[in-house]
Amino acid sequence: MIRISEKTLNDLEFSTILSHIEELCNTDYGKVKALKIVPLSTKENLHISLQQVFEYKSSYLNDARIPNHGFDGINKELQLLGIENTFLETSNFKRLVSISTTSNDLLSFFRKFKELYPVLHQTSSAVPFTKEIINLIEIVVDKFGEIKDNASPTLNALRKEINEVQGKLNGSFGRDLTRYNSLGYLDDIKESVVDNRRVLAVKAMYRRKVKGAIMGNSKTGSIVYIEPEATLQYSRALSNLQYEEREEVVKILKDLTNKIRPHISLLEQYQEYLSDIDVVAAKAKYANRLNAVLPKITEDRELTLKDAYHPLLYLNNQAKGDKTHPQSISLDENNRIIVISGPNAGGKSITLKTVGLLQIMLQSGMLIPVHEYSRMCLFDRVLTDIGDNQSIENHLSTYSYRLKNMNYFLRKCNDKTLFLIDEFGTGSDPELGGALAEAFLEVFYERSSFGIITTHYANLKMLANELPHMTNANMLFDAKTLEPLFKLFLGEAGSSFTFEVAQKNGIPYSLINKAKKKVERGKIRFDKSIANLQKERSKLQKTTSSLKTKEQKAEEEKERLDKINQRIQLKLESYQELYDSNQRMIYLGQKLNEISEKYFHTKKKKELIDEFMKIVQVENSKRKKQTTKQRRNAKAKQQKVVKEIEQKVEVIREKKKEQKKKEEKTEKAKPKVTLKIGDRIRMIDGKSIGTIDTIEKGKAVVNYGIFTTNVAIDQLEFVERKK
Known about the structure:
Layout: H1 6-11, H2 14-23, H3 28-34, H4 43-58, H5 75-81, H6 90-112, H7 118-124, H8 132-140, H9 153-182, E1 186-194, E2 197-203, E3 212-217, E4 223-228, H10 229-260, H11 264-290, E5 296-297, E6 302-308, H12 311-320, E7 327-332, E8 337-341, H13 348-363, E9 375-376, E10 381-385, H14 398-412, E11 417-421, H15 430-446, E12 450-454, H16 458-466, E13 470-477, E14 484-490, H17 498-504, H18 509-518, H19 521-602, H20 605-622, H21 628-669, E15 680-683, E16 689-696, E17 699-703, E18 708-712, E19 716-720
Parallel strand pairs: 5-9, 8-12, 8-13, 10-11, 11-12
Antiparallel strand pairs: 1-2, 2-4, 3-4, 6-7, 6-9, 13-14, 15-16, 15-19, 16-17, 17-18
C-alpha cells in the first residue's frame, strides 16, 4: 500500500504542480479534482492512470484527435432532481442534453478507436452509452431551449389562441397609432413599451383627447404613455392566456423532470467521467509543456533518471529565457544511497528535490521531464527532510524538529522507502551532530532503503567511501572561477571550497589565513586534497571533451575525404573507360580509312568485304554474349548514367546562372562613378586596363599604351582614380 505524507508533498512543492494542472483544466469540476490529486495507493490504478495520460498525449500526433470533453457542471440540476415535487427549467434540461451528448460522443469515439486508445476505451466502457435522456428531453424542448408547441395538445391550442389574440391586439394598436398620429397628438417617438405592453407616446397637452389607460410619463413630463382603450380588452385576454400557457408549461416540465429522475445516477456518472477525462487532458497538456515522457516502470529496485529536469525550475527558466541544466542520477541494489557534498549554491538541494518531485509526480499518474530511457521503480513511502523546519507552534528549534523527523524516519524506513535529506546532521554541534547523523545513516543503510542526502560533514563522506552500497557525489564547480556547473558527478566527495569562496567574495586574505590556523591542519589538508582532485578532474574533463571534439572532427574530415576519394576514383574509372572507348574508335577509324583507300586504288569489292568482315569478327570476339534482358539492363544502366550526368550538368548550369545573377545584382548595386580624364578604366567584362585621354559627347579616347581606341562611356568600367 503506497502512502505519501502531506509533509513530503509540501517539502517538494507538489501543490504548485497541482495549481499548474488546475489552470489547464477546462471545467470547474475538473479544476476541483486537479487540486485534490495525490499519489495513487495501488500499482494497478497507477499504471492505468499513467497509460491514460500517455495515450491522451499521443493523440496530439494522431489523425484521430480525441473530441471535446468540456461541460457545464450539473450539481444544481442533480440537487433539484433529488428533491420530490421540484421541476427543472428548459435551461437545466439543455445542460443535461449537453453533458449526455458529450459523454456519448467520447464513448463512441473510444469504442471506434480502441486499438489506438486501449486503456481510455477500457476505463470508458464502465459508463453506459445511451441516448434515452437526450430523446426524452428533445421530444419536449427544442434546440433553442424553448418548449415545443406539440409538447401537449393543450399547449398547442393555447399558443394558437395566443397568436390570434396577439394579432388582433397589434392590428387594433396599429389603427389607433395611425389615427392619433394623423391628428398630431403623438410625440416624434410615436410609441413605446411599458410593463411589456405597447403604449402610445402622447404629448402631455393632448392626454385627455386619447382614450385609454395611462401607464406612465417621461422624466420631463412632456410625454404621457397611454394604452389605447380598444387594445385593453385584448391585453387582458392575452395575459389570461399567457398565465394558462405558463401553467401548462410547468405541468409539462414536471412530467419531464419525473421521467429524468430515475437517471440521476447515470448523470452523476457522466459528470464524474467527463471531469476525470478533463484531468487526464490537463496532465497531458502539462506533459507537453514540459516535454515529459513515460519512463520504463520496472519491478526491480532501480531509479535511473537520465537528463532529468526540475519541472518548476524548467518552466520558470523557460519564461525568463534562461537555460536549465538537466541531471542524471542512478540508484540500484549496488548503489542504494548517494551522499552529495560540495559548496552551497551548486545545485545540491535542487538535485535532491528533482528526484523527489519527479517520483511523486510519476506516482500521481503524471508524465515527467526525463529522457525516455530512464527507468523507475515505485516506493511505498517517500520521506523528506528539506529546508528549515523550525516548528514555532510547538516551540521546537530546528534541530529538535529534525530529530523528531529522524525518529519518524527510523520507524518507517524499510526496503521500499526513498528518503531525501537536505543538509543532513546540521543544527547542532558539528562533531556531535555529525556522529548522530552517521548513526542514523548506518541504520537506513542496514534497512536497504534508497536515499539521497546532502551534507558538508567529512565523517559522512568517509562513511560513503567505506560502505560498498553507498556512493559519494558532488556538484561540479569551475576550478578557476568557482562558478557552479550544475552537473552531478558520482563517485567522489566534493570540497566545500570554504576559504576559496570566501576569498572570491572579497574577504581579506589575512582574515582567511587567521581562520585557517584555527582549524585542524589535517582537516584543511583533507579538504585541500579533495579540492585539488576536483580541479584536476575538471582539467581532465576539459581535455577529454577537447579530445573528443577533435576526434569527432577528425572522423568527420576522414569521412569527407573518403567520399571525395570515392568520387575521384569513380571519375577516373569513367575517364579511363571513355579513353579506352575513344582509342578503340580511333583504331577502327584508321583501319576503315586504310581499306577504303585500298579499294579506291584497286576497285576490288571482294577484298574490301573480306577485310571489313575480318575487322567485324575481331571486334565481335571481344564482345561478351548477352541475353536480351542483359542488353536491356545494360542499356537502362547506360541511360541512367547519362541521365545522372545530365542532371549534374544541369545543377552546375543552374549554379552558374545564379552566380551570374548575383554578380549582376552586385554590379547594379555598385554606385555609378562619373568618369574623368586620367581615370584608369577597363571595358565591361574586359581585362585590359587603360587610361582616359579625352572625353567628348559620351565617348572617350582610351590609351592602352601600345594603342588608343574610341569607346562609348557606358561600356567602360571604373578601376582607379588618377592620383
